[in-house]
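Re: that chain you flagged

S.,

Sorry for the slow reply, it's been a week of failed gels. I finally had a moment to sit down with the sequence you sent. For the record, here it is as I used it:
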Amino acid sequence: MNGNPRPGRTARPSVLVLRALGLGDLLTAVPALRALRRHLPGHELVLAAPGRLAEPAAATGVVDRLLPAEAPDRAVPTTLAWPGPGPDVAVDLHGNGPPSHLLLQRLRPGQLLGYAHPGTPGLPGPVWREDEHERDRWCRLLTWYGIPADPADLWIPAPATPSPAPGAVVIHPGADAAARCWPAERFAAVARALRAQGHDVVVTAGAGETALAGCVAARAGLPPDRVLGGAADVPFDRLAALVAGARCVIVGDTGLAHLATALGTPSVVLFGPVSPRLWGPPPDPRHHVLWHPDDDQSPRPGDAHGRVPDGRLLRITVEEVLTAVRSLPEPNPTRTAARHGSAAAPTPMEVPARR
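Prediction finished late last night. Pasting the structure tokens below so you have them in one place:
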């Protein structure tokens, strides 16, 4: 791949990466982003993603600037506010098909990297595979273009911010769709049992999840100050510090599960409509996956955005979760020390002001 600036440009060359999705999507793309940074060290790496991801994008340590971009329901944005000449390199890590390909082509990049699709026959690239883990998918794309990428290179540095609850068990009952939400009363039963065993338990909530987190905490007998977030998202540096310093995280198939993976924190992850082989943590004794699929073993047996809890998710019992927690190894003392301030804070990332 040609890493030279486009003819006639004197400014620092740029690589624009489109991944205008959520936190978990960003974190599964870290290996690909890190591969681009290694391959194009002199380029400005710009990530087109929702503005709310500015802090986690900076925390990866590889993104130079965030270009705010988003669309409802995981759709492709209709426009990108890219000023001046097109980027030297544009990379489609958003999806596969004409909407995202054409969005980037309209910027007239020097080179566009993406998967092959019959709707954009002028774009070379590898064949898209439906049954592929997200980390593997984007690393395979870059490798096809001659950019070595390792799906296991997924770590992000622990924040310098101190944890608000060192050593706590973190329970996150929410998700962006009901299909991936294990029942609140079961999360509460897990929290109550762990508290009875002497664990400090913290319940986290995303924006708009005040009632859900409050219900879990109340049923578990936890005081209100054991709930973090709800009215708004927990600030990312505080959330990352909490997860980095946690005994473990208990969570559904959502962004916080990927944050635990990226920080090396033990986790129990509950899956329902989508197979963990597409979105789960890598094989590692620190991460315990619970999933009860149907006999057909389809990777997407349910609707990940459905309005009721998926039946496969409901097959997971409270006792299974408690058993999984007991099976987790203790956090690595060396990493725990790093989680509490010895890691350098990431370089501040430039984020354009909203107009």
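What I noticed first: The chain has two domains: 14-144, 169-341.

Talk soon,
D.
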